[in-house]
Amino acid sequence: MYQWLWALALSALIYLIFKINEFKKRFVRWGVPGPAEVPFLGIFGEAYFTGEHFTSVLTRLYNYDKRAKYVGCHFFTKPHVIPRDLDLIKSILVKNFDHFADQEFTIEEATDPLYAKNVFHVNGDKWKEARTVLLPFFTSSRMRSMHRAIDRVAERFTATFVEQFAARDAIDSRDIFARYICDVIASCAFGLEVDSLKNPTNEFYFHGTNSVVNIGRLRFATFLTRIFPKLGSFFNITMVPVETSEYFVSLIKSIIEARRRENAPRPDALQLLIDAQASGKNWDIYDIAAQAYVFFMGGLDSSSTQMCWLAHELALNPRVQAKLQREIDARLRDSNGEIGVETIGNMPYFDATFYEALRMHPFPILIRECSKEFELPPALPGSRPFLVRPEHSIKFYVPAYPIMRDPEYFERPDVFEPERFVENKIKTDVTNLGFGLGPRMCIGNRFALQQTKILFTRILSRCSFVPSPKTCVPTAYDKSNYIPSAAGGFWIKLQPRSQIT
């Protein structure tokens, strides 16, 4: 009896030693430099327990060996490559996109259809099909036609916002801007009228934010689906809560039925999806709901967070804010107060301010997975090339955050300086990765800019953002969220302008 136990224990020990050795020698065998790591945790897994922010870990990896074109590391047991060389990054994202077209997520469609079927997470032909259907929503002509709908939301929202919050010492801008984005999505994507400031407990807002604002739940679900996908599937872990998925499927069913019954199509995103199904796309209600839900997955959290950072940086940089307000005032004088397409389009300093906030606080990484054999150049001078095969299951983390904070590409990278975008100091598009690069870059980038400019034009023409007693100064990141968010929350204060010149 005891001999069997000893044999089993010895076998387990030998296997453990073998796996540890394999873990340590993997990148050495491939000729890829990388830091020493804790076995089975890796540098990213270790950060889960130490509390180091994701951007800090990523920056350490990026700076590990500045001679290297790329470095290797692990996220728990999963091998990852961090490309540093700009030519290599452009090769991955653009020139050889067909080798790196896939994302890393493996989500079960049966248990989490809204997440698994949307354009952000499908691969191959399904991705091409979904993107082709959604692209017309983001054309220049469509942006012009949606302008008035966005401005109606912004006008109503600003009036309530200033009336209710101007006297407060501290405003939770994360909640405020999420409500605005939710109302814009309701109007432009679903054809619904929602007022989330006056009706703060409405179902649309609750379910829209349920899966993207609950950081603790999202962090746990992301961890399981990314690192232990089979375990996540076994326990039916979903990125989108079941009740939220059921709500949106039911809502979209009712909207579709009403439009068909009344023969009343609308110029919104949902109509594009309905028309695509009618034209022969082999889509069911879950396919339609998943693409409609893209506006929450790709727009609500990222857009509202970006607005928070923009307001935060303006509050801490009054010189920049005053210059931006002078541009806004001048354009409004020229248009007799109308916030039309031309008015918004003729604000170069506003564009620069937006992109500078995005540069300083971007989504940290662009994720790609190799689906075809691809030969990476030697990582270090004198080393050998590395032939990446799909069976290696290597994830590529393009380090957007460290690149956009690298003094080699941006002078004084930790200073909020929009002039760098006005004066065309950006050396290459590969260093400006706020919306990604290549065929899989964010298709809603112009929409994000448009909805931000319309709202901020209305607010900044009446008020200024100033720091509140709760504002995060100096700026630090919330360690519980791998997306850059202010520690302690986004807090600002509104200060009405004494006069507009």
Structure, described:
By secondary structure, this protein is of the alpha+beta class. It contains 20 helices and 9 strands. The protein has helices at residues 2-30, 42-50, 54-62, 86-95, 113-116, 124-134, 140-165, 173-190, 203-210, 215-227, 229-234, 242-262, 269-278, 285-316, 318-334, 341-345, 348-360, 400-404, 419-422, 445-460, and strands at 70-75, 78-83, 171-172, 365-369, 374-376, 386-388, 395-399, 463-467, 491-496. Helix 7 runs antiparallel to helix 8, helix 8 runs antiparallel to helix 14 and helix 14 (285-316) packs across helix 17 (348-360). It is globular and about 85 Å long. The mean pLDDT is 88. Keywords: Endoplasmic reticulum, Heme, Iron, Membrane, Metal-binding, Microsome, Monooxygenase, Oxidoreductase. Pfam families: p450 (PF00067). This is Cytochrome P450.
Q: Strands across the major sheet, in which order? A: 1-2-7-4
Order of helices and strands: HHHEEHHHHEHHHHHHHHHHEEEEHHHEE
Average pLDDT works out at 88
Give me the count of strands: 9
Question: Which parts are unreliable, with pLDDT below 50 for 5 consecutive residues or more?
Answer: none
- Spatial separation of the terminal alpha carbons: 91 Å
**% residues in beta strands:** 5-15%
Shape: globular
The percentage helix is 40-55%
Q: Structural class, from secondary structure content?
A: alpha+beta
Number of helices: 20
Largest sheet: 4 strands, mixed
Radius of gyration: 24 Å
Main location: endoplasmic reticulum
Pfam family, one: p450
Organism: Trichogramma kaykai
InterPro entries: Cyt_P450, Cyt_P450_CS, Cyt_P450_E_grp-I, Cyt_P450_sf, Insect_CytP450_Detox
